[in-house]
Amino acid sequence: MLLLKNGKILTMDEKQVVYGDILIENGKIKEIGGAVDCPGAETIDLKNNIVMPGLIDGYCHVGLIENGVGFPGDDMNENSESINSQLSVEDGINIRDISFKEAYQSGVTTLSVCPGNKSIIGGKSCILKTYGNSLDEMIIKRNAALNISIGDSCKKLDDKNPEMPRSRMAIMDMLRSFFENSKNYLEKKSSGEIDYSKYNKKYEEMDTVFKKEMPLQISAHKAQDIQSAMKLGKMYGLNTIINYCTEGYMIIDQLVKANSHIMLGPYLTDKSSNELINRKDEIPNILSQRDIMFCLTTDHPEVPVQLLSMCAAVAVKNGLDYLRALKAITINPARILGIDDRVGSLEVGKDADIVVFDGDPLKTSTNVVMTLLNGSIIYKNY
């Protein structure tokens, strides 16, 4: 057992702040309190440093695009086809990419790794811890979401080899056609009309989507694309998460009405494209004021994963409540991703994924003193 003593514990649950200790056993939090005693346990004095749950990046591409490698190390997108529901990012992740180390050294312990946005349907994401010797050891949740893109990124604009989609009209038509064909296929399979000779892997993968066991994670910047995403989800009664949501503030009432869950990011970016021209630094505060469930993401490598806490800091600078900013990189992504039974807050029974800071977590001068994952110290800086 491991006993962490004398910390200022920001739990991210209803207790919010506890001055005291955390007892860890078998990788789980066994007890949190003001004066925990456990004779024989290994004890570490935290010296009144700030203790938080490990940070969570809800949308990134860590391990899919390797640092300093270029095309050979870029496995974000399968550009040969527009519909890739059968693909899984698990087959492309390199867990030895340096970005994993940079993540846990900055306090990020959980990632939702997603395919890129060059295809209409890029494939299935997975959720994993940032440290381990094998992908199987690190994974929290396989097939976490089916990733869809609506907007400019997935248009096929090669005039030498013209093919769909070349417009938003084509993107939505292809999505609806695929969903309808998948639905019809699965209905026929259920009634015994589909045999092995007619097996379709892409349609098969939609079964868990229609059963609401796997959400759609739809990337959309512009208001019109966000509306198309919500319409698609509503049409088929599906669980839907909106990525980017750059112009979400323009349709804020619709987001509220739809009880939307938002992966907001990349937050530390510019207005370098048509889809980003209307971005606002104040959008986290705008969403927060309407009690919309959202989290902040890096979209690594667009923003390096180790700057996740800085995304929250800039959001605070632009009006977001401090505690809500911390929740936007801890418990909120855990809830949106459906993993809050294990991570996102410091509570008895949850994974002991813990980060210790020597100051305010949202100040650039603050250092990570220690990172624990599943109760083991994987990084220390003291």
TrEMBL record:
**Could you tell me which residue ranges the Amidohydrolase-related domain spans?**
50-375
InterPro entries (UniProt xref): Amidohydro-rel (IPR006680), Metal-dep_hydrolase_composite (IPR011059), Metal_Hydrolase (IPR032466), Metallo-dep_Hydrolase (IPR051781)
Gene3D superfamilies xrefs: Metal-dependent hydrolases, Urease, subunit C, domain 1
Give the GO molecular function terms.
hydrolase activity, acting on carbon-nitrogen (but not peptide) bonds
**Pfam families per record:** Amidohydro_1
Q: Which domain of life is it from?
A: Bacteria
Q: Which PANTHER family is this protein grouped with?
A: ALPHA-D-RIBOSE 1-METHYLPHOSPHONATE 5-TRIPHOSPHATE DIPHOSPHATASE
User: What is the designated name of this protein?
Assistant: Imidazolonepropionase
- Source organism: Maledivibacter halophilus
